[in-house]
Design a protein that fits this description.
The complex is a heterodimer of chains A (161) and B (433). With 161 residues, chain A is an alpha+beta fold. Chain A has five helices and five strands. In chain B, helix 2 packs parallel to helix 11 and helix 4 packs across helix 6. In chain B, 54% of the residues lie in helices and 16% in strands. The chains are: A alpha+beta (161), B alpha/beta (433). Chains A and B meet through helix 1, helix 2, helix 4 and helix 5 of A and helix 1, helix 2 and helix 4 of B.
């Protein structure tokens, strides 16, 4: 009986300590804190998504590099196919710095896909802006979407950065 | 080669630590309650995926573990770990459902449905979880007593199926594996190596041994009502290097018996062309053993058991309860030094090998004490510390080997310690696996 309590208590305590460390003081904390404080990038992203989706249908799914008036480069990533549908993103680079990520295409065949996208993309974008690379973690509960996002992001960085 | 219990536990612990590192390196910073819940579920899932393979590895008959840790301790770890892992799996499933539901702002029931239907391979994993839960429930002590050993044994094969079913969802939806190729490769290699070990030590080796040694039943002799000795002949048996106190897992190739292998101790010194086991009828398998006929082919896995491996004292006490005499009978003839055998049985009809034991005792100048009868007839517990001290002078200086029913051994270990025998000099293996 004592063993049972030890096992349960030990496991719960271990989990709390691990998760506690992961939520306090980890280097990634800064990024997420900024993300919650400033949700603007995603607001722009979703607005851009609807606009750019129409544009991208004309251009097909090809990726490309467009120079913008502000001195940045707007790079469209490859379409990454996932089990739930295609993911494609567009990245604004200014002086080789990722300043904005726009989601052009995302899985949306079911309500669930949309819900998953709604919580996953803001996190992924925030991570990208913080990491300034494609070395970012996938979001739990949205592993496929994350995988597609990371793939598309990789193609952007291969092409333009 | 043998690996002791402590190093094995350290290795298992380091593996678990590696699993936590895998989570740590892949996880995003945890923010918000939903994240806490989901990540707790992920960690438990990873630990369960690791632990379930460790449980199989413990039962893979790896020779260094069988020798160094001992079959009975491995079985105890397996049983304890099994309960723990099943709890982890249950908690994993519930926490993931809850965490995802919180993130998506929908009810848990709806989220459970979504997970089952929309996430790849989750339904297979759910079937696996229920299979493991079922096996866990029937293996639980209370239920096992009401279950035939054979049924219990075969139910365990469903765990292999469950592990296979649950494997794919780990890569398909596991956040730690989706974009982490090295993790996938390492994880797969871990699963694969244990699978290969199981196949090798539980299938290939016994078959090769059977081909090499050509085991066959050569004769049966009745020792007491319901107790029968089986003599198994074969070639090159000295190559097995079996020692008194060890056991084999025996599979008799006749209808109704070939599909199960049961552990029975050698009850006599192993001979280059014949081995002897002694079996008490107590269940389907042991009951059918008495109906074996000479000529039956046998597959033997072993030898296993480390009962007689440790020895520091010249004076030895062998303490047998009932049919637990079998390994001690072999040791009684073989162990050097000053040996005393105490044989406890509740009825004189249960005493086996009486003539053999008396002959051995005379031949080597050893002592045998028979303690026969119920406690009432014997005026109290004959294995109490005081009675044992009277029976065996300078008991505290003896090395003690025990074999018998679990309850008797538990009690005897406590009494021996009371009598001043250090725990490290009390050796026993329980045969409840």
């Amino acid at each position: 009986m004592r063993r049972i309590f030890l096992a349960i208590g030990g496991t719960v305590a271990g989990l709390v300590v691990l998760l506690g460390f992961k939520s306090h003081g980890g280097p990634a904390l800064a990024g997420v804190a900024a993300g919650t404080a400033n949700s603007k990038p995603y607001g722009q992203a979703s607005a851009a998504a609807s606009g750019a989706a129409g544009g991208s249908s004309g251009a097909g799914s090809s990726s490309g590099v467009i120079s913008t008036a502000g001195g940045g480069r707007l790079i469209t990533g490859d379409v990454a196919n996932t089990a739930y549908g295609p993911v494609q993103i567009q990245v604004l680079l200014k002086q080789n710095k990722i300043t904005k990520v726009t989601v052009l295409e995302q899985p949306q065949s079911t309500e669930n896909d949309i819900r998953i996208g709604d919580f996953a993309f803001p996190k992924l974008i925030q991570e990208t802006l913080t990491a300034q690379s494609d070395r970012i973690d996938s979001v739990s509960g949205a592993t496929y979407t994350s995988g597609g996002y990371i793939k598309s992001l990789q193609s952007v960085l291969d092409n333009g950065a | 080669m043998r690996v002791g219990p402590v190093p094995v536990l350290v290795v298992i612990g380091l593996g678990a630590l590696g699993v936590l590192v895998l989570w740590w390196s892949n996880a995003l910073a945890v923010s918000g309650f939903a994240d806490w819940v989901t990540n707790a579920g992920r960690i438990l899932g990873l630990l369960a995926g690791y632990g379930v393979v460790v449980l199989v590895a413990l039962m893979a008959r790896l020779p260094p573990l069988e020798r160094g840790v001992g079959t009975d301790r491995l079985a105890r770890w397996h049983a304890m770990g099994g309960r723990y892992i099943i709890s982890l799996i249950t908690a994993h499933a519930l926490l993931i459902i809850w965490g995802y539901a919180l993130t998506a702002h929908i009810g848990v029931v709806q989220e459970a449905g979504t997970l089952e239907l929309n996430y790849p391979d989750v339904m297979m994993a759910t079937v696996a979880a229920f299979l493991l839960l079922g096996v866990g429930i029937v293996s639980a002590r209370a239920a096992r007593r009401r279950l035939r050993y054979e049924t219990w044994y075969y139910l365990h094969f469903y765990t292999y199926l469950a592990i296979a079913l649950a494997f794919s969802h780990q890569f398909a939806v596991g956040a730690d594996f989706v974009s982490d190729w090295p993790a996938r490769v390492g994880w797969s290699a871990f699963y694969l190596s244990v699978a290969v070990a199981v196949l090798w030590y539980r299938v290939v080796c016994p078959l090769r041994g059977a081909a090499r040694h050509q085991f066959r039943v050569v004769g049966l002799s009745r020792e007491a009502p319901g107790v029968v000795s089986v003599h198994i002949g074969g070639r090159y048996l000295d190559e097995l290097r079996a020692e008194p106190g060890q056991f084999f897992r025996w599979r008799f190739l006749i209808r109704g018996l070939w599909w199960s292998s049961n552990p029975y101790s050698l009850s006599a010194m192993p001979h280059p062309d014949v081995l002897r086991i002694t079996v008490k009828e107590n269940g389907d398998h042991s009951g059918a053993v008495s109906r074996l006929r000479p000529g039956t082919r046998v597959i033997a896995e072993g030898p296993y058991g480390s009962l007689a491996a440790v020895r520091t004292r010249r004076q030895v006490l062998l303490l047998a309860g009932g049919v637990g005499i079998t390994p001690l009978r072999a040791m009684f003839a073989a162990l050097p030094g000053d040996v005393t055998l105490v044989y406890r049985a509740s009825d004189s009809r249960d005493v086996v090998f009486r003539e053999e034991l008396d002959t051995i005792a005379r031949a080597r100048g050893a002592r045998v004490h028979y303690l026969i009868g119920s406690r009432a007839q014997l005026g109290g517990d004959p294995l109490s510390a005081r009675r044992l001290q009277e029976l065996v002078p300078s008991l505290h200086r003896h090395e003690v080997y025990l074999c018998g029913p679990a309850g008797m051994m538990e009690a005897a270990v406590a009494e021996l310690q009371t009598a001043g025998v250090p725990r490290r000099r009390i050796h026993y293996e329980s045969f409840e696996f």
